[in-house]
Amino acid sequence: MSECRKIIHVDMDAFYASVEQLDNPQLRGLPLIVGGDPGRRGVVAACSYAARVYGVHSAMPCAQAKRLCPQAVFVRPRMQRYREMSARLMAIFRSCTELVEPLSLDEAYLDVSRNFLGERSATRIAEQLRARIFKETGLTASAGVSYNKFLAKVASGTKKPDGLTVIPPEAAAEFVAALPVRKFFGVGKATERKMQAVGVHIGSDLLRFSVEELIRLFGKHGQFFYDIARGIDQRPVLAHRERKSMGTETTLARDILALEAVQAVLTELATELGADLTTKDLCGRTLTLKMRYQDFTTITRSCTDQAGFADATDLLAQLPRLVAATEAGRRRIRLLGLSVSNLLPKSALPQRAVQLPLPFPGQRQLLGQSWQR
Questions:
Q1: Catalytic residue annotation
Q2: Mean pLDDT of the region 103-114
Q3: Cys-Cys crosslink for 51: which of 47, 112, 193, 204, Cβ 3.0 to 4.6 Å?
C-alpha cells in the first residue's frame, strides 16, 4: 500500500431533530419527527432515535410515520437554523485541517494526514472533534476513522449515536469481507438484487470475480467494487467540491389539475430558485422540470440553453415549453420541482439581451424547442 492517509468521516446524530431538541428542551427524549403535516401531505425530513424505534425513517410519508408512531411530535423544518448550526460545525472542522469535504449540512470528510493541531493520531483528533462539537453546540456526533473515504464513512455508522469506530489498515480486509453489500457505496436496492442473483451477499463474495467480470455485470461501478473488496479507495478528500446543480420542489397540499394552478406553483418555485442563483452569483445551462402525478408516476422535462439560466426571468421564459411537454392540465399533480444544472459563475457568460417571460399555454403546443425526456 502507498502512503497511508488518515481520513475521518464525521456524521451528526439525527441532526435536524437534535437541533430542535436543543432549542426546545421539552422535546428531548420524545419521538420527534421533523417534516410536514401528517394530516395533509409531506414527508419525514428527519426524526429522533426515539421515533426510529417504531420504524420511522427519513423520506417516509408523514401520514405513515404517524400511523407507526401515533404519539410522535411533529415540527416543521427550519432550514435556516440548520444551516447556521452547520456553519459552526464546518468552522470547527476547518480549524483542524484545510482538507474538509462537506457531503451535506451534517456530515463531512476530513483528511488529517497533515493537520493544524500537530497531532499524529487521527483517532485522537476524532475524539477531540467530537468533544469540541458537543461543548460548542450541545450536539453529538459519530465518527469513523480509517485510511480511505469508504471505510471511514462505513465506520461512522457502526456505533450510532455518539460513537467512534476506527478501522486500521491491518483490520480492513476482515472488516470488508464481512460487510453486507448493501453497505457499499453505489449499491441501491436494484444493484443489491443483481448482486444476490450472482451469489454476492457480503464483501468476501466479490473476491471470486475478476475485474472484467464485475465490469461486465455492474458497468462502471465494477472497478470500484473490485477495489473496495480489497480495501482500496484512492478518492481524495476534495476541499472545494464543485456544485453540480441547484433546485427546489414542493409536495402539494392537494393534487392540482388546472394549468393556472400549475403556473402559480411554478412561478413561486422559479422565484425561489432564481433568488438562490442570484445570491450565489451562479447560472445553469440546463433547466429541469420535475412533475409527480397523482398515481406517483414521476417525470422530468429538460432544456438546455448555452446562454444560461441566471434568474427567475430566465426560468419563467422557458417553463411554458417544459409544461407543454407534460400531461399538466389532463392529469392531477401532487409534486412539482425545478432545478438547474451545468452550473457556472455568471461572469463566465457573455452579456445578452433580457428575455421576457411568456404566458403559460392554454393548450399543449411545442414551440420548436427540443426536449430531453
A1: 107
A2: 94
A3: 47
